[in-house]
Amino acid sequence: TVLIIDFGSQVTQLIARRVREAGVYCEIVPFQSAEAGFERIKPKAVILSGGPASTAETGSPRAPQAIFDAGVPLLGICYGQMTMCVQMGGKAEPSDHREFGRAYVEVLKDCPLFDGVWTQGQRHQVWMSHGDRVIDLPPGFEILGRSEGAPYAVFGNVERKAYGMMFHPEVIHTPDGAKLIGNFVHHIAGLDASWTMAAYREQAIAAIREQVGDGKVICALSGGVDSSVAALLIHEAIGDQLNCILVDHGLMRKNEAADVMAMFREHYNIPLALVDASDTFVDALEGESDPEVKRKTIGKLFIDVFEEEARKIGGADFLAQGTLYPDVIESVSFTGGPSVTIKSHHNVGGLPERMNMQLVEPLRELFKDEVRALGRELGLPDSFIGRHPFPGPGLAIRCPGGVTREKLDILREADAIYLDEIRTAGLYDTIWQAFAVLLPVQTVGVMGDGRTYEYVCALRAVTSVDGMTADFYHYDMEFLSRAATRIINEVRGINRVVYDVTSKPPGTIEWE
Ligand code: XMP
């Protein structure tokens, strides 16, 4: 096990992810409880994360003395390097300006940390962040790399197996960072790449059992990968203490509710109730065109329906959610200041307080691709695992302008044809997310010998890694032409199709 001591960096989870990618198990503990964590876990190596503090401030956080006394291999990152420097007998001081961004490190000396990745004399891009800077090395340490702004960008003591770096190896903007972390855990700490998703599954199950005890859990299943994986995992942990509810809000894709029910009934034996609340939702949205009002209305109704259903099964102590790590980081702004609400993302927020429930979020530490790997491990069919994301508020936010039953029906048909064409062309897995949007504009056309005056349908497709940034998908024109022709021919109410060529930013993936 690798112990990661968290000093409050926004990207500490990325360190954990890189260690997992290197096939090594790790746990993160906040610095306040690091001493107990170190005792309990007895790690083979320790990584000290970055953080917002300065070692010069009185009362700034420190790593427990035990990790230095025990002689375990150490890697200090950013603030972690500073506190390591100070605690091992060196000196650091605040520098006048904080820097966060691209920098280049010049490799001054070969060492086990750089093995097979960097060699002396080379220059490599890294993502730098420094507030403090090292002014005196701890005894036994030497400089291994420097950058323009940081003469001690990397230092280390090869004998002691202790290294510090001022840049962040865990972020993708340090292209070789994952390999450096791999070197630390494999070559320096001598750990095998033996940790797998199967092991994660076992640990997650044990943790769920411990948290839930003999309490009752309810889970809102959307049919998406995240909530499905969370439900399967929890079911494996606590069996029928879990009840799942699928709320059909009338804003789903064509056949969606039926498909999801069939998949779960066929493969799994999880108590799952389908609640048809489509009239309630669609009536409440009828004519509403403000995107935020739509989102809030849906969020509130969802909580009402869910509360009602939970009451029917005699209440619950826990609410399960498929919250992922990016949902957690996105909710905190990078600067620590209040972040602007771009969209009120729909989840079951508000419900736990109202019903006095605790949250069970077994995927909170994982990224989307890790959740997919876990889903595979749990035996979810590939067709299910590879599904594009679908937003909680569903088709309501793909009908800009007033939502009506008629428009939802038109959109559902166009969307189904579009996705059918994407699958036929073999593009479904290459595209991150694709969908149709029904615009509240009618335009003139000519079909047969008659004039038409019907809606415009916009097609959207994006590539992305995590949904936080995205590029529009570059179709070939033949494909677009085929999809457009089919939609116009087969869907009553649409006589024009356009393609959205906006990336994110400046656009968002959804239109509302
Ligand atoms: P945006 O439109 O913000 O979307 O670029 C990023 C990703 O999030 C999905 N999305 C949502 N997912 N509830 C969800 O569960 C929501 O309210 C919601 N709004 C957007 C969107 O489909 C895309 O994958």
UniProtKB/TrEMBL annotation:
Keywords: ATP-binding, Glutamine amidotransferase, GMP biosynthesis, Ligase, Nucleotide-binding, Purine biosynthesis
Residue span(s) of domain GMPS ATP-PPase: 195-387
Catalytic reaction annotation: XMP + L-glutamine + ATP + H2O = GMP + L-glutamate + AMP + diphosphate + 2 H(+)
Signal peptide limits: none
Transmembrane segments: none
Pfam family membership, one: tRNA_Me_trans
Residues of the active site: 78 (nucleophile), 168, 170
GO terms assigned for molecular function: ATP binding; GMP synthase activity
PROSITE patterns reported for this sequence: GATASE_TYPE_1, GMPS_ATP_PPASE
Gene Ontology cellular component list: cytosol
Residues reported to bind ATP: 222-228
Pathway involvement of the protein, from the record: Purine metabolism; GMP biosynthesis; GMP from XMP (L-Gln route): step 1/1
Subunit structure: Homodimer.
Function summary: Catalyzes the synthesis of GMP from XMP.
Protein name: GMP synthase [glutamine-hydrolyzing]
Gene symbol of the encoding locus: guaA
